[in-house]
Amino acid sequence: MASGDPIMIVKNNGNKRAQQTKLLLFNALLELMRDTEYKGINVKLLSEKAGIARQTFYRYFTSIDAVLIEEMTRRFDIFFESIEDYLLSKDYHQVSKAILASLKVDDDLFIAIHKVGLSYNLYLPYLEYAKKVKKTVSNVNKLTSKDLLLTEFYAGGLCILLNYWIGNNTDVPLEEFTEVLINALEFLIQK
């Protein structure tokens, strides 16, 4: 699958065994990426490393790229739940700090996604996150066309910002990064 192609993920949420298998695949993929060029990793190799059958892989995913993207989506969902109270209280400094903490904790995943050229495939998960933020802060179920434009702008900017951060080995001073995130959040949630 070429970079930029749409990623299809076969969802099977709610099943503990499914979640464990997906995590096994993700961890095996990260491990393989330490020693093997991404292009050299195929479903057979990944399945063997994870200790599962190839058919099991295809029960949950349509591609190796989808393993990375689904893990990112899963982590975004967990992250959003953790910041919802900060959003409701409009404590954007805490939201930004939580974003940075999440980036540091999840840097293995961000770096892996960046390394294999999938960074821009994160735009849609960022967009869904931005819509959740805007709906939560605005206390609405449906966004106006202006709100939709704002969320598109925010998601694109966040995608580019994270690519820059990862491309610079996460060496951008946290104070500067935090300030930019706070400004971006304030822009997103404006009335």
Question: Can you tag this structure with a few keywords?
Answer:
single chain; Arc Repressor Mutant, subunit A; 2 domains; mainly alpha; globular
Explain how this protein is built.
Helix content is 72%, strand content 0%. It is an all-alpha fold and 191 residues long. It folds into two domains: 16-64, Orthogonal Bundle (Arc Repressor Mutant, subunit A), CATH 1.10.10; 69-188, no CATH class. The longest helix is centred in the middle third of the chain and has 25 residues, at 64-88.
Q: How is the topology of this model organized?
A:
Layout lengths: L15 H20 L7 H8 L3 H7 L3 H25 L3 H14 L1 H9 L7 H16 L6 H23 L6 H15 L3
Helix pairs in contact: 1-2, 1-4, 4-5, 4-6, 4-7, 5-9, 6-8, 7-8, 8-9
Overall pLDDT level: 81
Distance between the termini: 41 Å
Number of helices: 9
What's the alpha carbon Rg, rounded to whole Å? 17 Å
Compute the number of strand runs: 0
Describe the sheet with the most strands: none
- How many domains in all? 2
Q: Would you identify the regions where 5 or more consecutive residues have pLDDT less than 50?
A: 1-12
General form: globular
The amount of helix comes to: over 70%
SSE series? HHHHHHHHH
SS class: mainly alpha
How much strand content do the residues show? under 5%
